[in-house]
Structure formats: C-alpha cells, structure tokens
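== Item description ==
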Amino acid sequence: MKLRTQLVVLQSAIMLVVIVGSGVAAAWLQERALRDAYLDRMIGVAYSVAQLPSVIDAYDDADPSAVIQPIAETVREASDVTYVVVTDVEGIRFSHPNPERIGEVASTEPDAVITGDLYTGRQTGTLGESWRAKVPVFDAQGAIVGQVSVGILESELQAAWLSNVWILALFLAIAAVIGVLLASWAASLVRRRIYGLEPEEIKSMLETRNATLHGIGEGLVVLDEAGAIVLCNDAALRLLGREGDDLAGVPVAEVIDAQLEPLLADAGEQQLVLAGERMLVVRADPVVVDDRSIGTVLILRDRTELDAALRDLAGARDSTETLRAQQHEFANTLHTLGGLLELGETDAAMAVIQRAGAGGALAALEPAHGILELEVAALLLAKRARARERGVELEVRADASLRPASSPSVAGDWLTVLGNLIDNALDASPGGRVEVSLDDVDSAGGRLVTIVVDDDGPGVDPELREAIFGHEVSSKQRPGGLTRGYGLMLVRRVAERLGGSATVSPSPLGGARFTARLPVESDAAGTSPAAVSPAATGAAS
C-alpha cells in the first residue's frame, strides 16, 4: 500500500471512529434530554390535575368520571401526552383515553397511593409500555383519595427521538465525506512535501546520506539562515575539537574564530580560520532547495598537518641549500690549504684550519647552551640557517637552558610557540638581529619554561599589544594580500591552555620582545642543565 493510500485510510479510520463515537454520544444525550423533558411535562401535568379543586370535589360525587374525564382529556390534548388517568385509592379509573376503560381497575399498582409520593418509571399498561409519572390526590383534610397517572408511550418517545436523530446522522455523514476529502488532500500535500517518495525510499536515502556524510574525511557543517548549526559530520566534530558533542542549535561563531559574513556572502571562496589550536580552510556554499536558499554548508579542511609538512619541507630545503653553501665554503678552504702547503706556508695553513674551526652554516649550538630537548635544538639550527639566508643574525643566548620534554605533546607545544615567535621576529627584522632566550626552572607549582624572543624591528604599537594576539591582527602583510595574524593567536592559545601567558613588550634591541611562559608538570626524569657536561650538550644540539 502506497504512503498516500495509507495516510488516507488511517486518517479516515480515525475520523470515522471520532465521528461515530461523537454521534452515538450526541444521540444518547439527545434521547436523555428528550426523556427528561417529557418527564418534567408529565410531572407538571400530574400535579396540576391532582390539585384542581374540581377534580378533588368530584371524588365525592356519585359519578366522578362525569367531571374528571372531560378535564383529563382536555389537559391530555393540550399537554401532548398519551394519557391522563385519574383513579381512586382502589385503582378504579375515573378517566382514560379509551372511555370504555373507565370504571375498570388500572392494570398497574397505584404506586403513588401506596407511597404517598411521586413515582416515575417505565410500566406496561393497557396501551403498551410507557414512560409515566404518578402523584397522589389529597382531599381537603389531607387524606389520600386517589392518584393521577400521566404517561407517554415508549414508541412515541422513540418516534420523537428518531425524528431528530436522522438530522444529526445527516450532518455526521456530510462531515465524514468532507473529512475523507480533506484526508485525501492532506495525504497529497504530505506526499508533495516529501517529493513523492515512499517510506522505503526515504529510509534508503537516509541510510546512504548518513553513511556518506560520516564516512568522508572532510568536515561538513550545515547552517540555517540564522547561522546556527543544523548538522555536523564526524570529521567536522573532530576538526573542531568537539567530538561527542551535539552542536545542533549552537551558533557557528562559538566554534570557529572567524568573521564568516564575507565568506557566506561570496559562495565558493575559501578562508583560513582557527578552531581551538587547529588551523582550518573553510569554504561556504549555499544550500538551495526549489530555487530557495535555506542555509549554508561549510566544508572544513585541516590545514594544520599541511602546514607542518610544508614547514618540514622548507626546513629540508633550507638545510640542503646551507649544505650546498657549506660545500663551496669547504672546497674554497681546501683549495686555500692546498696552495699554502705547496708554497710551504705551513704556519699559514694551520692558521686557516684554526680559523675555520667547526664552522659551517649548520654548526652546532655553542657548548655552553643547555638545550637538551633535541627537537627544539634542531628547530633552532634550522631557524638559524633560514635567518642567515635572509640576512638576519639569529643568536641563542649563552645562558639558554631547556631540559628534555616529559612527553611528545609538551615538546610539540614548545615547537609551536618557539617556531611562531621566531618566524614573527624574522619577518619583523629583515637584515637585522634576533635573540632567543630559553629558561627552564622548577617552581612551587611545577616546572616553568619561559621563551623570550627579541628583535630589532619596528616594534609593536602600544595600542596593539593586546589586540595583536587576536584573530587576523598583524602589523605585516603577505604578498598578494593573503590573510595573516594566526601565529601569535596560536601562541597565546597554547600558553593559556597550559595555564601560562603570552605577552609583548619593548625590546632592548629596539623592537619587540615576545615572552611566553609555559607551565609544565614536574618531570622527575628531567635533568638539570648544570649536571650535563659540555660534550653532552654539544651532542644533544
């Protein structure tokens, strides 16, 4: 059975049950109202006749029926009841619709005479089953001298009731027909709203959509017209760092740090945004149904891993170029040595050897440095090579110290902060000088690593010293107008996540000094820099 047929049948069945139930209840209530109305009329007629002085006085006549019968018939016809029967205490009739029954004993008990009070109920008499009321007749002294019985046949009651019920049934039938038509229209409307699909088709499409939505690697976020999240797939929750959360109804601005209005206004454009400490590329596309825009879908791609790979590639390229330059340097030195030895200038040759020392662009850090974390030492070497290539003097202060990290994630945080601060300083000081200081101390709350990077660039305007850690705030512009301002924002986020801080202040070099304080849980395995020999320091570097 098709969905439309099911809807029509179910709605019609429900409607018919309601209509039939309501009709039966209405008919029953109408029958009760009709019966109560006749009962009130019969009681009123009975008391009226029982209290007429002419009726009461007629009980003392030799032929009471001569007076009572005309009165009873007149009242019966005027009140539209079946009969008005007046009897004495023995039940002998003084009035009856059939005059031949006058003088006979009534076929039912004189209940009002027996009880002295009103009696109502169904009884079967000479005219048939009737709904009746009986009241006693009292004389002037208050003694019961007879009763008045007023009734209407049940058949007449049923006829009166049926004369009204057929009108109710007609209206109910009309309502049923209209209801079926409306049910058919509603079923058609529902079918159009679901694009004419059957439940099995909808189920199959939903299962396919869920499998596709949650199986793809890119993050998908569907927004309504107000910018609230309607749907997220698993990849989007992972990229946003909200795995296990239900983001339905949450404004997108609470999970993505970016001004999305320009992106939403220009469909197909991409924008770099920050979600937590993860860098994402976002593209917005409108969701159009029946030529009507009902929202927007955001496609999220992870830029963090790509940036890390690009940094590694850049480091390898820098190392290659430096090695190539070092090869030429060593070749020149060897040629010089060969010429001096051929000339017999051994002292001069020894001086060249002593001057060269352990030189080269990839020379290790000075033995006095206590940087024992290998990844950080490697980063500093790569940044020094890059600085030389750009004509910047990058110096690591002699008192720098850093013990090995307690976990790879801690080392990763150090690399993120130090790398971004050095890159920022190199950009700010072309052809200038950059100094790096690392301090690793034990405090009451645990271990505290302080990273300080100074440059001799133009510095940071005092009004921007707080805002520069915000979203897309930068004093520099990339070629082509590309977006900047994420590095320092990432530095502050990492620092605040660790319970530390990131600040900027004037530098003694004349530019800016960026300071990042990164608390670390106490590392029992950490080795004090003072306890490490210079040889170990050089090997670690």
Remarks:
- The first helix runs from residue 3 to 50.
- The chain has four domains: 3-160, 202-301, 303-361, 364-540.
